[in-house]
Amino acid sequence: AQSVTQPDIHITVSEGASLELRCNYSYGATPYLFWYVQSPGQGLQLLLKYFSGDTLVQGIKGFEAEFKRSQSSFNLRKPSVHWSDAAEYFCAVVGFNAGNNRKLIWGLGTSLAVNP
Amino acid sequence: GAGVSQSPRYKVAKRGQDVALRCDPISGHVSLFWYQQALGQGPEFLTYFQNEAQLDKSGLPSDRFFAERPEGSVSTLKIQRTQQEDSAVYLCASSPREWSTEAFFGQGTRLTVV
Questions:
Q1: How many domains does chain B have?
Q2: Cβ contact (<8 Å) for A103 and B55?
């Protein structure tokens, strides 16, 4: 079965520091992978996605992620964090249920705090 | 509207009460998803509509949960005889393409069952 693991429940970084949020997936074929951000009181917003092609994908707000098949990982990175990046970050993979219907399977999320 | 709108934003229900949660997707979007997000968890898939057809309801946790989208636009998630374990944020998402999981999310409805 498809699954997503986000090993870090909570991360704190200083403003201006670099950031890497980890995501590992379990999926037999080439996965469709997503990173979403959820700010307090806001809906989930898509940061970036990987379907195929270049394994380094660029997203909004200066985020990028790298798909590494050998490590079953899709880690999210940002070179310099801003205070407004404090939020909950979710990694997700497209999975299929018994009826071969498509749906998103989500990790538990990583809560990011940013120190001034 | 400009985005996916959900109402109410917050709902407190007494155990055993029925509730109805509304989702207004982006106009013209074919796909509509409902997710349940418990505190400290990631979203869990509940059900999927393609226009008015409910093509996947495999994630609905029990027969107390019912969703509809009669005219292929607004959707309602109904929970009958609410229980404390139903307390969660219910998220709606819509997409312009069939089966597309690249969707736009609403802000959610936070349901608290007391």
A1: 1
A2: no
Distance CA A54, CA B60 (A): 36
The residue range of the domain holding A81 is 3-115
Give tens-digit pLDDT for B43-70: 999 999 999 999 999 999 999 999 999 9
pLDDT single digits (tens) A62-81: 999 999 999 999 999 999 99
Number of domains in chain A: 1
Closest by CA to A86, choosing from A5, A12, A9, A8, is A12
Can you tell me the distance from the alpha carbon of A34 to that of A92, in angstroms, rounded to the nearest whole number?
5
Choose among A41, A44, A104: nearest Cβ to B101: A104
CATH of residue A8's domain is: 2.60.40.10
Chain-chain contact of A109 with B42 (C-beta, under 8 angstroms): yes
Search chain B and give the residue with CA nearest A10.
Answer: B40
CATH number at residue B98: 2.60.40.10
Beta bridge partners of A105: A93
* Alpha-carbon distance B14 to nearest alpha carbon in chain A (angstroms): 24
Q: Which residues of chain B neighbour A104 with C-beta distances below 8 Å?
A: 33, 43, 45, 101
